[in-house]
Design a protein that fits this description.
The chain is built from three helices and seven strands, in the order βαββαβββαβ. With 123 residues, the protein is of the alpha+beta class. Strands 1-4-6-2 form a four-stranded mixed β-sheet, sandwiched between helices. Strands 5-3-7 form a three-stranded antiparallel β-sheet, with no helix packed on it. The longest helix has 17 residues, at 101-117.
Length: 123
């Protein structure tokens, strides 16, 4: 399980490849990437994401551990960025690996919902 909270952009292909390596026992790998979207008026120039170092990482590790146990995952990855982000930039990535696709999909959705609604980030 890897949890990263970082300001720098991440390479989606590289992270996906790294995640998939060594998952020979998994029957399913699910990935999701969140992207900053413009507002309805099309006027968003940027958004600033803030967090409390230490607290945020701890909360994300705890929810990832819950997902590992609840959905019988073999591996999980959570990456979330902070700082100034403009529309079109990647803001987060979730990857899950499980023996069965249903568990991988349900775990990814569980993690995405947490990141969107309850993770300790401020916009």
């Amino acid at each position: 399980m890897r949890v990263l909270v970082q300001e720098a952009p991440f390479d989606l292909a590289e992270e996906t490849t790294r995640f998939a390596m060594g998952e020979g026992d998994s029957g399913a790998i699910v990935t999701f990437t969140g992207v900053v979207r413009d507002n309805d008026a099309g006027t968003l120039s940027a958004m600033e994401i803030e967090h409390y170092p230490g607290m945020t990482e701890k909360a994300l590790r705890e929810i990832a551990q819950q997902a590992m146990a609840r959905f019988d995952l073999q591996e999980a990855l959570v990456i979330h960025r902070y700082g100034r982000l403009v529309p079109g930039e990647q803001i987060m990535m979730v990857a899950t690996a499980a023996r069965h696709r249903r568990h991988a999909f349900e775990a990814a959705e569980f993690l995405m919902d947490y990141l969107k609604s309850r993770a300790p980030f401020w916009k």
